[in-house]
Design a protein that fits this description.
Layout (H helix, E strand, L loop, with lengths): L2 H13 L2 H8 L3 H15 L4 E3 L3 E4 L1 H29 L3 E7 L8 H10 L3 E6 L4 H9 L5 E4 L9 E16 H4 L5 E3 H5 L4 E3 L4 H11 L9 E3 L2 H8 L5 E5 L12 E7 L4 E9 L6 H13 L1 H5 L9
Parallel strand pairs: 3-4, 3-5, 7-11, 8-9
Antiparallel strand pairs: 1-2, 5-12, 6-10, 6-11, 6-12
Length: 308
């Protein structure tokens, strides 16, 4: 059995198309097909259902592709370990991030890249928590930043990063007064624009309101925090977003930030990795950076209102 055969098999399982898999592996389609046939002969089981085109993996193939991914991941980890002993850390770190953490991930990746300048980080910043977990299990990602609540993470390693807190952002004219907090009944009186239904940030708001028999009916919904703040900047809208966004996207001029009172909305954000030991040397280095950086302390600094 050759690592090349396993690479071709995993590529075919991922692409679900012989020509695309061959292109991804930089080989001809006949060469890829022949290598997979030889793998089937060696293992004495059919791995691929073939017709005029690729028709999927056999039940045996679905089981064995998990082993193939694990073997290739361990092979890559071994090479990275040896290289690190000789020249320091090199290679590619694949990181998946939920949209809510897109504005904070630099607090982790920037010091990591500074510590390990030969490592390249491949960052995907618009993924769902469940998809990140699935791709870590499939060895397609090395680590991810997710909401762990309501997720099956029993076989993964969890490292706490920070607690996300939602705040209300609106113009000074809409809010008035000098209080640092606002009650939900008062907040719901404001012309509201919010994240769309189905997004985790909106789900947290709806769940908090349901516990108090309250409902929010925003006139405008979107999947973009940037779009929400753009509307707030007109002075005629209020929104509720994670305070962490305001570390990168500063509040629009003339606005104030208010904490929501009874209940407050919080959500835990964590770094998730495979639990298998010893694991990838790159993943271990990322975990060490996360522990040293203390992102939670950085994000606990107050965000100033942007009044003019």
């Amino acid at each position: 059995m050759l690592f090349r055969q396993l690479e071709y098999f995993v590529a075919l399982a991922r692409e679900r198309h012989f020509a695309r898999a061959a292109s991804a592996c930089y080989v001809s389609q006949p060469a890829l097909s022949e290598a997979i046939r030889k793998l089937e002969q060696e293992l004495k089981v059919p791995l691929v259902r073939r017709g005029r085109t690729f028709e999927g993996l056999t039940p045996e193939g679905e089981r064995l592709v998990l082993w193939a991914r694990r073997i290739l991941a361990d092979h890559d980890a071994l090479k990275q370990e040896v290289t690190a002993l000789q020249t320091g850390l090199t290679g590619d770190l694949r990181l998946g991030v939920i949209p809510a953490a897109a504005g904070t991930v630099a607090l982790l990746t920037d010091p990591f890249c500074a510590e390990h300048p030969l490592v390249r980080v491949q960052l995907e910043a618009s993924m769902r928590s469940a998809d990140i977990i699935d791709r870590i299990r499939r060895f397609e990602l090395d680590a991810g930043i997710i909401y762990p609540d309501r997720q099956d993470t029993g076989d993964l390693a969890i490292t706490h990063l920070y607690e996300e807190q939602h705040v209300l952002v609106a113009s000074s004219e809409l809010l008035g007064g000098q209080s640092s907090t606002i009650s939900w009944p008062d907040a719901l009186e404001l012309p509201m624009c919010l994240l769309a239904h189905g997004m985790r940030g909106r789900q947290l708001i709806d769940d908090a309101l349901a516990g108090r028999d309250l409902v929010v009916t925003p006139q405008l919904e979107t999947d973009s925090v940037v779009a929400l703040l753009a509307h707030v900047s007109t002075g005629r809208w209020a929104t509720i977003i994670p305070q962490t966004w305001l570390q990168t996207l500063r509040p629009p001029a003339g606005t104030r930030v208010r904490r929501l009172d009874s209940p407050s909305i919080t959500a835990r954000v964590v770094l998730v990795t495979a639990a298998a030991q010893p694991g990838s040397v790159l993943t271990r280095a990322l975990l060490q950076t996360a522990r040293n950086t203390r992102i939670d302390q950085i994000l606990n600094r107050p965000v100033l209102s942007a009044e003019t």
